[in-house]
Amino acid sequence: MRVRLIQFQRLERRRPGGWQCDFGRPDPIDCGVGQGLRQAGILGIAGSLRRGSYNQAALCAAKSLVPENSEIDLFPLDGIPLFNEDDEKRPPSSVVELKKRIRSANSVLIVTTEYNCSIPGVLKNAIDWASRPHGDSAWFGKSAAIMGASPGAIGTARAQQHLRQIFVALNLLLLNTPEVVIADAAHRFNEDGKLIHEPTKELIRELLKNLVDFTRRISSAPA
Ligand SMILES: Cc1cc2nc3c(=O)[nH]c(=O)nc-3n(C[C@H](O)[C@H](O)[C@H](O)COP(=O)(O)O)c2cc1C
């Protein structure tokens, strides 16, 4: 118990806003928040700002489940202000950075929380910013995969359906399978936010492999 408390204090010190992907391993995973893509790869965005978020934890887990030669870089949504159309032609620097990072990634992985049977406002807000101004959407034609975690039995299935609908409107090219719906999250992650459910890890591994294959296929498809 004492060890656990010490780990939490260390996590808090490193990033008050959430998991650092340092789950007490001797060789901690560096989530790479804000470091930019080292290899062209996947940009990961989690739709929760909550300290101890299951969705941030799922995204951290995904970082260690990517296929060889791929990488997930993270973009935390903490610094994105509320969207105001008055400002869309001169967006805040956090939004400029978000759009830049989406554009330079080969694909995106969105890990959504479910709030009131839909996606959380913080995620929709970021999606809206990056889609504007009209004609300058960073999402257009980008390949994408989605997943999500919740403590309940439905595991964000309804939020993911709404996200799919939004992505059609944005012309994001969405991977269809597998559906990664992480229900009963309290038992699939441990107290340190580490994903401990092997079948879920396998599913995320498959999702990421499919995303990388899909992205390669669509970018090398003959005209
Ligand atoms: C405003 C609000 C609405 C919620 N609605 C749902 C819901 O519709 N479906 C669901 O499975 N969980 C719902 N929850 C519970 C969230 O799934 C749970 O808080 C989850 O841990 C949030 O994701 P996070 O861990 O990534 O922060 C809701 C929570 C809040 C605060």
- Reported CATH architecture: 3-Layer(aba) Sandwich
Largest sheet: number of strands, sense, barrel closure: 6 strands, parallel
Classify the secondary structure makeup into a structural class.
alpha/beta
Backbone shape: globular
By CATH, the superfamily comes out as: Flavodoxin domain
Query: Beta fraction of the residues?
Result: 5-15%
Number of strands: 6
Distance linking N and C termini? 60 Å
Q: Would you tell me which CATH topology applies?
A: Rossmann fold
Q: Tell me the domain tally.
A: 1
Q: How many separate helices?
A: 7
CATH C-level class is: Alpha Beta
Distinct ligand kinds = flavin mononucleotide
Helix content: 25-40%
Contiguous uncertain segments of 5+ residues: 1-16, 22-39
- Evaluate the radius of gyration: 17 Å
Order of helices and strands: HEHEHEHEHEEHH
Oligomeric state as shown: single chain
Overall pLDDT metric: 87
Description of the structure:
It is a single chain. This protein has 223 residues and is α/β, with parallel strands linked by helices. It has one domain: Flavodoxin domain (Rossmann fold). It is 38% helix and 12% strand. The chain has helices spanning 2-14, 54-63, 93-104, 121-130, 157-169, 185-188, 198-220, and strands at 42-46, 72-74, 107-112, 143-149, 173-174, 180-182. Strands 1, 2, 3, 4, 5 and 6 form a six-stranded parallel sheet that branches. The protein is globular. It starts with a helix and ends with a helix. It binds flavin mononucleotide. Flavin mononucleotide (FMN) is lined by residues 48, 50, 53-55, 113-117, 150-152, 154.
